Amino acid sequence: MQLSWASDMLACIRKLTKPAKWSATLPTPWLPSTETPADPLANLITDGNTLSIFEVGDDRVKIERVAVAMTMPLRQILDFEYVLFDPTLPLAANALLQKIDGATVDAEVNGWHYDITELSGERLVRLARLLLDNATRDVVYAKQVFARLAEAVASRSIPTETLEGFSKKDRAALEELMRVRAR
């Protein structure tokens, strides 16, 4: 299913798995300005010629919820670095967008998921260049991820049993935060 974006869908995010490599300004004096550096591609690893993104509009709460959902499989609370971009950028790279439910522990976040599909190597490099030139890099700090995780568990957006792989220290801190907020 090809997607036409509604006017209220202002921005999408993509997690940076190797944030240190996300820069068009790294010193590469040998690289012509018309070419894309290779290192940022480490953040755009495809699976079946697709990339996973989430539509978040201009809503910071949605961004933080995606951060929580994406960090849950890691079983630790970390900073969540990402790029925020206009949803037309993948289309400008001649890729397609498909609305496909995500596979996180948060059902609502899964509804914000899209795949960028039909990515060839050339299209991926074109998309990387567009993102490097036009996307905004940002971070949800671990403290914010932690607080939003406590809210998600308290509201049952994320099942309590998904915390079982977390350290005892993190689980205890989450339970204490939920107790304090419940007062």
- Count of the separate structural domains: 1
Biggest sheet details: 6 strands, antiparallel
Beta fraction: 15-25%
Question: How many helices in DSSP terms?
Answer: 6
- By secondary-structure content and strand pairing, the structural class works out as alpha+beta
Radius of gyration: 18 Å
What is the typical, i.e. mean, pLDDT? 88
Shape, principal axes of CA atoms: elongated
Strand arrangement, largest sheet?
4-5-2-1-3-6
Percent helix: 25-40%
Termini Cα gap: 46 Å
Can you tell me the residue ranges where pLDDT is under 50 for at least 5 consecutive residues? 1-8
SSE ordering = EEHEHEHEHEHH
DSSP E strands, number: 6
Observed structural traits:
six-stranded antiparallel beta sheet; 6 helices; 183 residues; alpha+beta
Description:
The protein is an alpha+beta fold. It has helices spanning 60-71, 89-92, 107-110, 121-134, 142-154, 168-182; strands spanning 12-15, 51-55, 80-85, 96-99, 113-117, 136-140. It has one domain (12-141). 34% of the residues lie in helices and 16% in strands. Helix 5 (142-154) crosses helix 6.
Q: How would you summarize this macromolecular structure in one to three sentences?
A:
The chain is α+β, with helices and mostly antiparallel strands and 183 residues long. 34% of the residues lie in helices and 16% in strands.
